[in-house]
């Protein structure tokens, strides 16, 4: 069985669930965006460590709310998503921007993205739902698409409960994942782990997932 066939049914289900989802509109709120781009955000702090924004790819871009935060800083940015409806939305959103390109992905790797074409890759609030084998597959393919010195900042699940279960049965719909295994795979793929942290998700203490998210900054030597 090919690696891309492992979890294929689940991958398709996950992609379909987020197709035209009401979440995208809610996620545009200033309060929600502040958690990623505000002055006290761990995401913004680590993003500022990315040295070169000449050619940036956002994985699982949704409706482009994160790309919109950096479109004026990036020389060129590619927005990628498994759902064509999201890419169509982004085409309208960024129609006046000459530095934005579009890519419909396969949910498993960076097929269709040229070798050594990116100086930076990032993904927020999306890989936490991915099948873990797909997260690992993206890590392996990162080295191919990053230029030497290129960096990747990835937000993914560190929830190790319910292995083999459905992600929507887990706290905050986090799929099975592990920061430790992520690090291992990144290093085996020839990438450097520059910085990483796990953290809680959710504002209500009774509903908060403790340490179920991870954010890791990688570099291709």
UniProtKB/TrEMBL annotation:
Keywords: Methyltransferase, Transferase. One of its GO terms (molecular function) is methyltransferase activity. Residues 56-150 form the Methyltransferase domain. Transmembrane segments: none annotated. It comes from the Bacteria. CDD domains: AdoMet_MTases (cd02440). Pfam families: Methyltransf_25. One of its GO terms (biological process) is methylation. This is Methyltransferase domain-containing protein. It comes from Rhodoblastus acidophilus (Rhodopseudomonas acidophila).
